[in-house]
């Protein structure tokens, strides 16, 4: 049964490519303002799940509901305008544009804001993500940390109610990870629901209320972080620890 407070519901969603089952009858709900981590080994279907939620991939079976609306057949731009924002594991900024121009694209075309409001939102997001000192720098010149920050800033500029983060902490130093955690927690404090795919467990545990573990596209655990990480199936499949 789906709770009435859910901002997102994924109902019996499956996706197959030929003989490869990449998601297998996945069902779960995300509440308003909730932060949920998605874990699983490489090839478990985590990014495919994000592609299904974001609209880049259509499910073979099942449906996806966002804020009470069935969005299963909607294109990615329409989902973005409804309030689903996303960062990608490998940042792909518009390299010939400045940091500000990249973010402005998100506010203008993702959130469909009028010019003055798009400019205001873009500057606010640039400041919140720690990029104000590089606002006029071409994105091609950014460090990995700043490209990750820009990826987050572009997603935030679309004014999401649900934010999908795909391994945004990967490749960062510990100090950089802590700064990123602070930024994500600040976003969450504003009531934005978050689903975060991440291999850096200490980063994930600093943000999320709940963890969903998947393997070969199927859910194997869903619950509080301590409970999921103690699950023998998760320990064996994800952590490589045999059940004692």
Write a compact overview of the structure shown:
Helix content is 36%, strand content 25%.
Largest sheet composition: 6 strands, mixed
Radius of gyration computed on alpha carbons: 18 Å
Mean pLDDT: 91
CATH superfamily of the largest domain: P-loop containing nucleotide triphosphate hydrolases
Any idea how many domains?
Answer: 2
Q: Classify the fold: give the CATH topology of the largest domain.
A: Rossmann fold
Number-wise, the strands total 10
Q: Portion of residues in helices?
A: 25-40%
β-sheet strand percentage: 25-35%
Please identify the structural class as seen in this structure.
alpha/beta
What spatial order of strands do you see in the largest sheet? 6-7-8-3-9-10
- Overall geometry comes to globular
| N/C terminus separation | 34 Å
Q: What is the CATH architecture term of the largest domain?
A: 3-Layer(aba) Sandwich
Number of H- or I-type helical stretches = 9
Please give the CATH class of the largest domain: Alpha Beta
Low-confidence segments, given as residue ranges, are none
Written as H for each helix and E for each strand, in order along the chain, the element string is EEEHEEHEHHHEHEHEEHH
């Amino acid at each position: 049964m789906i709770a009435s407070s859910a901002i997102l519901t994924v109902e019996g969603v499956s996706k197959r490519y030929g003989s490869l089952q990449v998601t297998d009858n996945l069902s779960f709900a995300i509440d308003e303002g909730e932060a949920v981590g998605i874990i699983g080994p490489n090839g478990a279907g985590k990014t495919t799940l994000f592609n299904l939620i974001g609209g880049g991939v259509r499910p073979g079976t099942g449906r996806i509901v966002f804020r009470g609306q069935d969005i299963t057949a909607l294109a990615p731009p329409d989902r973005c305008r409804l309030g689903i924002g996303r960062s990608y594991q490998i940042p792909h900024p518009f390299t010939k544009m400045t940091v500000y121009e990249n973010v402005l694209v998100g506010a203008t075309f993702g959130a469909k804001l009028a010019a003055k409001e798009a400019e205001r939102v873009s500057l606010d997001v640039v400041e919140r993500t720690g990029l104000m000192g590089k606002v006029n720098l071409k994105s091609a010149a950014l460090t990995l940390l700043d490209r990750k920050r820009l990826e987050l800033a572009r997603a935030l500029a679309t004014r999401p109610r649900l934010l999908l983060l795909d391994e945004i902490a990967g490749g960062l130093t510990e100090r950089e990870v802590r700064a990123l955690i602070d930024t994500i927690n600040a976003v969450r404090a504003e009531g934005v629901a978050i689903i975060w795919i991440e291999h850096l467990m200490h980063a994930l545990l600093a943000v999320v209320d709940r963890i969903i573990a998947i393997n070969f596209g199927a859910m194997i655990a869903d619950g509080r972080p301590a409970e999921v990480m103690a699950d023998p199936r998760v320990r064996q499949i994800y952590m490589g620890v045999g059940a004692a």
